[in-house]
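Protein modeling request. Please complete all fields; requests missing the sequence field cannot be processed.
Requester role: graduate student
Desired output: 3D structure, token encoding
Chains: 1
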Amino acid sequence: MKFKRVFLIVMDSFGIGGAADAAAFGDEGSNTLAALGTAEGFHVPNLTRLGLYHIEGNPTPAHAASPVGAYGRMCERSQGKDTTIGHWELAGVYSEEPLPTYPDGFPPEIIRAFEERTGRRVICNRPYSGVAVIADYGREHLETGALIVYTSADSVFQIAAHESVVPVEELYRYCEIARELLVGKHCVGRVIARPFEGEHPFRRTARRHDFSAVPPKKTMLDRLRERGLDTICVGKISDIFAGEGVSESTRTGGNDEGLAVTRAIAARDFTGLCFVNLVDFDMLYGHRRDVRGYADAVMRFDAWLPDFTQAMREGDLLIITADHGCDPSYGGTDHTRENVPLLVYGYGVKAVDLGTRTTYADVAATVADIFGAEPPETGESFLAMITEE
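Delivered output (389 residues):
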């Protein structure tokens, strides 16, 4: 079977537990899918049909009929559990060292340099929930114009500002300044603009923007572009790769818009990869430890799938996976170290168990195999396993 188009959809943070090294990350026993199963009425017949509950390590409900696609699970090999490292590994880049994190806030020399370059004072400078930080520091920001700088368990430098005090384009410029300063040992994965609006209670707006570190090596996107193929990115994918290897990008305000954009792209003619991130699972529900909200969001995605799969053409391949876990029933607000699902569907794709893959980079190796691109340094293609002889 010759594939012309690959749709790679990342359900951001949709882990399925079972990571052998979860305890080393303080995440022993975490399982995002199992947590969602505790929500009343949780039912995902289309993901089930693709093989979700046949994946090794997950209990198979009685209603799980024989899958119509290939299925398996992937272990993260890189030393991290954040968005950047997870997506880089999906694209074929193995990260031997975790990106820097700042549990005590950023060092004085970074903050001083940032204040000098922006001309604005910094407040907070410690790990914080994105919703709580504007509730606690929003008034001071409005009164003084000081920038709310905070981090999390991830490798991020986040800047929150009210749009009436700091226009969004100015906030983006401040993020670019931070990106220039955060290099070397302080090269965080992402600098994130977090604009908000309104009066107490404040509301975050949809104009978030990520300024990512440039991947240290060529990714799947670069290798496809070298072959003259399309690399169409939806959601925050382009931001995660600092625009490297991206032929076209559409930013979205959430899952619903991301799915609508993906469906519209499926109606177009292109050759190459459509790489999609659905951020709401993680941002709105995982970090906020909202089991009900997460479960409902997954069911909405599940309900979207039939229309998309029916619109798929001969030569189309759908891959559904995730970049890490974020168990909404687990302690704290951090991501959780989990294995992620690997669901593959398309004309001519065999309903086969892909087993436990030892790295997310198997996705990049498979995409490279499909399009005759240079393979990544790590990862093993599963193309031969899913196609008919």
